[in-house]
Amino acid sequence: MPDPTSKASIDFERCRIEDGKGWEKLSVERILDHRYIQIEEVRYQTPARQTPVDWTVARRKSAIAVAPMLPDGRFLLIQQERYPVQRALWEFPAGQIDDIHNRENTDVILNTVHSELDEETGHQLAPDGELIPLGYFFSSQGYSDEHVYLFLAKNVVPTGKGPSPDAGESILGCRALTASELSDEIACNHIVDANTLSLFARLCAKGHIDPSD
To answer: Count of domains in the chain?
Structure first.
């Protein structure tokens, strides 16, 4: 198999959160600094308000979520223990972009996609596979700047070594679902994570799948 990180780079829109067009961060006070999350008290001037507003913001690394599609058109999902909600959830592979200084760099984002696909499912793009960007979304825009880049990995094949998750992760299994089965699992509220729901919606909206098939 070829090294997936050697594939040519693709271009897609990156998320920029910055001052401009009437938005301005007037002051920032960090009240918690942790490797996974930073909490800040921020004063904003916004385009619609006459006076500044104070807000508590959770800073999080940007992340990726990828929908792996097998050659037969089925999608791979993993079952992972999620400690905050005390459940094992079926979801698409996802992960944070650890390079905080280059988190919006195209190649850094793409390398994260390939790494998470390999580590969490034991699959990678086939030589004729395609990685298709599907935009991004804000996971909790009311209090956090976290944003997740969405991708379709079309035509993935096993690496031969199986999943190799990080020590802190607990991945219990991997299974393949048709688009219709995936739609049914979502309709029955068996799939409830934001990444998978957003990816499914974006796949449908962009015409990559028809859940009625």
So the answer is: 2
Task: Using the 3D structure, point to which of 5, 35, 59 is the last residue of a domain.
Answer: 59
For 71-93, what is each residue's pLDDT tens digit? 999 999 999 999 999 999 999 99
Give this prediction's pTM: 0.92
The pLDDT of residue 5 is above 60: no
**Enclosing domain of residue 117:** 61-205
Verify that 48 and 65 share a domain, yes or no: no
Phi-psi region of 82 (alpha: psi -120 to 50; beta: other; left: phi over 0): beta
Higher pLDDT, residue 38 or 2: 38
Please tell me whether residues 70 and 52 are part of one structural domain. Answer: no
Specify the CATH number for the domain of residue 131: 3.90.79.10
| H or E element at residue 106 | helix 106-121
HEC-encoded secondary structure of 90-103: EECCEEECCCHHHC
Angle at 209 between CA 123 and CA 161, to 5 degrees: 5
Task: Supply the Cα-derived Rg of the chain in whole angstroms.
Answer: 19
Q: In this structure, are 123 and 160 located in the same domain?
A: yes
Cα–Cα distances (Å) from 20 to 25, 55, 62, 147, in that order, read: 10, 18, 21, 19
Among candidates 120, 211, 208, 203, which has minimal Cα distance to 161? 120
Between the CA atoms of 201, 207, 210 and 211, what dihedral angle is there, to the nearest 10 degrees? Answer: 0
